[in-house]
Specification:
Structural class: alpha+beta
Shape: flat
Number of strands: 18
Distance between the termini: 55 Å
Radius of gyration: 24 Å
Helix content: 10-25%
């Protein structure tokens, strides 16, 4: 996602990256710019997007490009009919695992779906989420997510650039292949997307599904300054690899992971000589130096990783051929279809818990307990194969009530109170997953709620 980060790379490196990527695009012999060409952007507002790798190559990404934030005025939009306006903007909670404040809310919006095709959009959204939820660590932590759909009614079915650059369609979000002249780069009109995102109660992550079977996607991975979501992933609803593109992009937006691919043959990216990268899966240290300095992913060195092989320090990554190292040879942050590596899984879990809390108070709503009342808490189920459960502990005035461990309901009568003082009852849920070894991340894997108890 982030070829540049302000804390470690300056504007000179940004310019260098753009020049290098221009070379990559030129050598790929791509067709001239299509309907989303940056030259058609009169406002001059650009956003940086990640380009998915070639369909047959398996690469997770092949560069970044500045594109117009507001898309292209290639076709004047038509007006929706009264029936279309009635269907437009409908919000549906597909997966309800708890209140938005305590869950990671994924908002899916479709583009190129007419009002009559909205049922198919709903089915496509659920299918695409099923693809994401089948990949670890999403599979284990699916109980931390809510899934929403927002209906965007398009005047025409399909999206621009499918099947060719000359095809232009009137759609709600302005989705277009051939963005910047790159066939597989699927761009959107971000202000239009934001208008639909704002209709959902809350959005932590946004996915735009194009009504197309053509391979493509894009990663808009900067956090929204106005709506607060972590990023937008675009994907074609009908292509079997588009789910993998979306998952890779969430590695950036949620896990804050660096890309692990690199640019052979691009002079500016042959050798890295800058400061230590901020991303947890990129380092200038060899395995021996990492272990000696107890830095980056040293806790995982030598462990078997789900993407194959052992965790070490493999040279090449974060766009550079030499001078930077990645944890494993071929994780999802380098090659589509592969799992996250062990350090990547840890980072993703940490990202989940930045948005989700695992203890939600259910009753009473005013968080005040009196005799005859019961404190109830909701704790999500973990779906991991190891059958691991969250650890739930209860405390009264800071003293643990060990007899109540694991419970999700406790009545005032069970507290054995004999005075009229105001007491504090609290419950803590903690995730002791072996997939997290970093103490800083581990500290975020717990949450507490409390009640005042008055007889």
């Amino acid at each position: 996602m982030h070829p540049v980060r302000g804390r470690t790379r300056g504007t000179a490196r940004r310019a260098s990256l753009r020049a290098a990527l221009a070379m990559v695009v030129a050598t790929a012999a791509l067709v001239a710019a299509g309907p989303a060409d940056a030259a058609d952007d009169p406002a001059g507002t650009r956003v940086e997007v990640e380009i998915p790798g070639p369909e047959q190559g398996g690469d997770a990404g092949s560069g970044h490009l500045l594109v117009p934030a507001a898309g292209s005025p290639a076709k004047s939009p038509g007006r929706l009919t009264e029936a279309e306006r009635a269907a437009d903007g409908g919000v549906r909670k597909v997966l309800d695992n708890g209140p938005t404040a305590d869950r990671l809310d994924v908002v899916v919006i479709g583009d190129g779906y007419t009002a009559a095709e909205l049922p198919r959009f709903h089915a496509d959204a659920e299918q695409k989420w099923a693809e994401v939820a089948a990949v670890e660590p999403y599979a284990t932590y699916r109980g931390l997510f809510n899934l929403w759909t927002v209906d965007a009614v398009s005047r025409e079915s399909g999206v621009s650039g499918d099947p060719d650059p000359a095809t232009v369609r009137d759609t709600a979000l302005g989705s277009s292949f051939w963005c910047g002249g790159i066939e597989r780069l699927l761009c959107i009109d971000q202000p239009k997307v934001d208008a639909y995102v704002a209709k959902a109660p809350e959005a932590d992550l946004v996915v735009v599904l194009a009504n197309s079977a053509k391979y493509g996607g894009a990663g808009y991975n900067e956090r929204s300054a106005t709506l607060g979501y972590e990023g937008i992933s675009t994907a074609s609803a009908g292509h079997p690899k588009s789910g993998q593109v979306a998952i890779h992009e969430t590695g950036h937006s949620l896990g804050k992971l660096a890309d692990e691919y690199f640019y052979p043959g691009v002079p500016d990216y042959e050798k890295y000589t800058g400061p230590e990268p901020v991303e947890s899966n990129s380092s200038g240290l060899t395995a021996d130096r990492m272990a000696a300095q107890r830095s980056k992913w040293y806790r995982w060195l030598g462990e078997e990783s789900p993407d194959g092989g052992t965790v070490g320090a493999y040279e090449g990554g974060n766009y550079y051929v030499t001078g930077l190292y990645r944890p494993t040879d071929n994780s999802l942050m380098r090659v589509l279809g592969k799992p996250f590596n062990l350090p990547g899984v840890e980072a993703m879990i940490g990202g989940f818990y930045q948005h989700a809390k695992i203890a939600t108070a259910l009753t009473p709503t005013d968080r005040t307990l009196r005799l005859g009342r019961t404190a109830k808490v909701r704790v999500p189920e973990l779906a991991g194969a190891d059958g691991r459960r969250l650890v739930v502990r209860w405390y009264l005035d800071g003293r643990e009530l060990r007899r109540l461990e694991g419970r999700t309901e406790v009545s005032v009568a069970e507290l054995w109170l004999f005075d009229l003082r105001t007491h504090r009852l609290s419950v803590t849920a903690e995730d002791r997953t072996p997939s997290v070894r970093d103490p800083g991340i581990a500290r975020t894997l717990r949450s507490t709620v409390d009640w005042k108890v008055r007889l």
